[in-house]
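Tokens for chain A. Residues wanted.
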């Protein structure tokens, strides 16, 4: 998310207390043996990659549920795994822009995604967008690692995204107040891709539509409605 958010503060998984994935390369926990040969280290990392890649689940259309403060420990634990996966190529894809929780969880997916920088984007909701989509040249998805890039993908060029992160309160981590990001171009397209996953839709679904990225649910939008009244500037309807 960009730096022009109004409130809330991005908490990076990599700098959370007792979590030091920033020093880990591929992430996921230091070797138990402090002294390793290069060959032992290579073997360890390869085995770790194989285990991490098993966390992906097949594509599904289950809608993610809203994250609450009771879910924070799970968000951090699974967020560490997702951050590590952001550093591991899969199929055709060597660069990973973001990863939604629903891509590693199909029983009780939570509404958040992780960026390779370690940012946790929690309960994101696209609150407004330009009226006419533009056509991206191509777009792919890690849930379909062996599918060729999809061509001419319709996406809104500008979106407003209301979301939460985590903050420290009374010595513990809790959800932040909602923040808003005004996005255009690649950041806007990334947010739409991940919100589509969280809404229970996938890029390669036969009925794919850019509207699938926009929240049309109930409690989540109701929860964020009050904060939308605070000093929010509307998005100009201009491509």
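Reply:
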């Amino acid at each position: 998310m960009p730096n022009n958010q109004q409130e809330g503060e991005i908490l990076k998984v990599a700098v959370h207390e007792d979590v030091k994935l920033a020093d880990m390369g591929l992430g996921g926990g230091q070797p138990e043996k402090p002294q390793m040969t290069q060959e032992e280290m290579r073997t360890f990392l390869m085995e770790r990659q194989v285990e991490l890649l098993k966390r992906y689940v097949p594509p599904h259309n289950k809608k993610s549920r809203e994250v609450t403060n009771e879910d924070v420990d799970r968000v951090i634990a699974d967020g560490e795994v997702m951050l590590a996966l952001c550093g591991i190529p899969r199929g055709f894809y060597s660069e990973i822009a973001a990863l939604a929780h629903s891509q590693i969880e199909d029983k009780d997916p939570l509404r958040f995604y992780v960026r390779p920088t370690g940012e946790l984007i929690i309960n994101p909701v696209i609150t407004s967008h330009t009226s006419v989509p533009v056509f991206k040249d191509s777009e792919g998805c890690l849930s379909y690692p062996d599918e060729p890039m999809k061509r001419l993908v319709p996406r809104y060029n500008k979106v407003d995204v209301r979301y939460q992160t985590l903050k420290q309160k009374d010595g513990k981590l809790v959800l932040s107040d909602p923040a808003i990001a005004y996005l255009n171009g690649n950041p806007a397209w990334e947010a739409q891709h991940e919100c589509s996953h969280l809404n229970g839709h996938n890029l390669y679904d036969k009925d794919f539509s850019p509207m699938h990225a926009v929240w049309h649910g109930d409690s989540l939008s109701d929860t964020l409605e009050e904060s939308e009244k605070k000093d929010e500037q509307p998005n100009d309807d201009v491509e």
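The helical segments are 38-53, 72-85, 186-198, 219-225. Confidence is low (pLDDT under 50) at residues 2-11, 14-31, 230-239.
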